[in-house]
């Protein structure tokens, strides 16, 4: 009964998960796994290897005679399990190859293999199943003497006759014949050429190709998958399959290089008075995220031109990893708080934000975001609620706010009840004479760059700055690139890169404005890092970046802070996120 339940669970997982995408993973020495056959099947391996030894008329599964165990026969460990899988209909959607590596004399052992398989008619001539003989094999000229369900592993690049090729299922070679590469970094050019030549030759024969003895690690899997090896040899079939299967999602090729703005540095770091502050927050934009955008954008960003750089610690009062609500509240109010809290302290008391404080000092204020206006980061600069999901209550506070400018998504939540003057596009925004304006980017959620948002963020920043400048008052503007965070949560490298480059275009507009309007301080940072993101591989020439993710949530990694303009040196160093508020207020008081 217990065995039956295990098989049912395996079948449920197999049908719902493994067949989602076919991968070419070879479970090397599968009999050494904790659960032979079933584990590899569930992991999505399409090739499973068993070493067999013939002793006293019995086929055992073992690497050598010293490791033989009486109960580990080829029938017990594999054939009976394959029969069960076939009876349960688990071999109908993805071809399965059983690679039988013969360790004893070829002809007598192979004769016993054939005899064992012939005991089970369901395994013979099954289009979803193939038995491939590797290791000690008869000569190719004898392949034709074996039943149709027996195929062979050709371990050479030497040509065969047409009749012999018909009995070959794949070509396998030891990678150590071509390279001593240990899987770290990349193989040297001469070794790479030899391996590529071997793969090309095998492909010309029209057969799948496998290297054995490859380094069993992600770098190696990635390299050989991209090189065109059909079966990746591994002792970690589940990890290997999920890694290879996710390569396309984690790898992005940037086809459009964004123009870089080179700052003038005329007042950068000077002691001139600060009149205007532009705070740009890349949601989830950690150092790896910035690096990915830079590397995919021809190795450069406007952000990477800046000279004043620091690091921010982001933890909230109740969590190692902050969320956007607590992170933005810390920067907006100068007080750390609990995750999910908007503009209130850990006890729920209202905290005044930078826009609210500066409004009393004669400043105009604004928010531009690629999120909805009630999103966690923008709302921390005008609202005060103990829960970031209280969108209705946050929306009411937006309507009562003294913000002069709002550009965001979420129009549908404010139809017929908005006292802001609505403008339809950046051109109207730049020319507006109204005291309070709103430009909606969408009726609901704002689309991503990959889904067609184009360059509306940078256009809105340029227009918004012109609008604020026309009022002849000092101003504070918060700009959020909200969807870098979305890429981290979705483990989408392409989203991170495109949103990061889009955010950099907004940064360029802010830095240009600062160069044209002395007394403007630009600060660029993030509320937190998302995804535990890293960059294991890529191609600089082709603007290709492969990302890797440790999580689909936020992390506690410090985030960079960049500054440009008067008193930019105040923002270098390592400090807590709530110090951003105090540093802004300090430079404005000078």
Concise structural overview:
InterPro entries: Alkaline_phosphatase, Alkaline_phosphatase_core_sf, PLC-like_Pdiesterase_TIM-brl. Belongs to the alkaline phosphatase family. This protein is of the alpha/beta class and 590 residues long.
Distance between the termini: 78 Å
**Looking across the biggest beta sheet, what order are the strands in?**
15-16-14-13-17-11-18-23-12-24
- What characteristic shape results from the CA principal axes? elongated
Number of helices: 19
Quantity of strands, as a count: 24
Q: Structural class of the helix and strand makeup?
A: alpha/beta
Which spans have pLDDT < 50 for at least 5 consecutive residues? 1-23
CATH architecture of the largest domain: 3-Layer(aba) Sandwich
Q: For the CA atoms, what is the radius of gyration?
A: 31 Å
Domain unit count: 2
- Kindly estimate the percentage of residues that lie in beta strands according to DSSP: 15-25%
Query: Helical amount among residues, as a percent range?
Result: 25-40%
Any idea what the CATH superfamily of the largest domain is called? Alkaline Phosphatase, subunit A
CATH secondary-structure class of the largest domain = Alpha Beta
Largest sheet: 10 strands, mixed
Family: Belongs to the alkaline phosphatase family.
Protein name: Alkaline phosphatase
Signal peptide: 1-20
EC number: 3.1.3.1
